[in-house]
Amino acid sequence: MTVSFPHTGTLPETTPRLHFRLLRDSDAEFILALLNEPGWLKYIGDKNVHTRKEALAYIHTGPLAMFKQQGFCLSLVECARDGVPLGLCGLLKRDSLEWPDIGFAFAERYHGRGIAFEAASATLKHAKEALGLTNVSAITAVNNTASMGMLFKLGFTLQGRIELPGVDEPSNLFLKIL
């Protein structure tokens, strides 16, 4: 089944603590650090981003290319008060999944503050209200209990395991009806 998505090109609204924006070249150092944090490497995997140049390539061929193609992407989530980058949150469209899936990753120093839940909630609201989506998927490593717990808190249901291209081990597949 082919599902088409609107190409509105919008991002979630600012929340009381968070601001969403497209990544830009000046975010390369933050992306380089985030993509090499132990949690990212363990649960998401090594994206082979080990230099500033590779971080720039990731920004342009990943999130910015997806935004141009789909009208949504992983956005930089920053502190609304001072613009400090906190992490990434948004929607991705993978050929192997019927629906867009939500992705989130925050610098480990910001874990445990409710930031990921706030960002993911805003992203789901945006998916429904601005993009007109009726379903959103999510995938996690089978041992990523923190992300699974947050997905359950957000109202996702576990659908089972899925084999994803380029991923050595099965992943958990979740679905949320919006």
From TrEMBL:
<protein>
    <recommendedName>
        <fullName>N-acetyltransferase domain-containing protein</fullName>
    </recommendedName>
</protein>
<dbReference type="Pfam" id="PF13302">
    <property type="entry name" value="Acetyltransf_3"/>
</dbReference>
<dbReference type="GO" id="GO:0016747">
    <property type="term" value="F:acyltransferase activity, transferring groups other than amino-acyl groups"/>
</dbReference>
<feature type="domain" description="N-acetyltransferase">
    <location>
        <begin position="18"/>
        <end position="178"/>
    </location>
</feature>
<dbReference type="InterPro" id="IPR016181">
    <property type="entry name" value="Acyl_CoA_acyltransferase"/>
</dbReference>
<dbReference type="InterPro" id="IPR051531">
    <property type="entry name" value="N-acetyltransferase"/>
</dbReference>
<dbReference type="InterPro" id="IPR000182">
    <property type="entry name" value="GNAT_dom"/>
</dbReference>
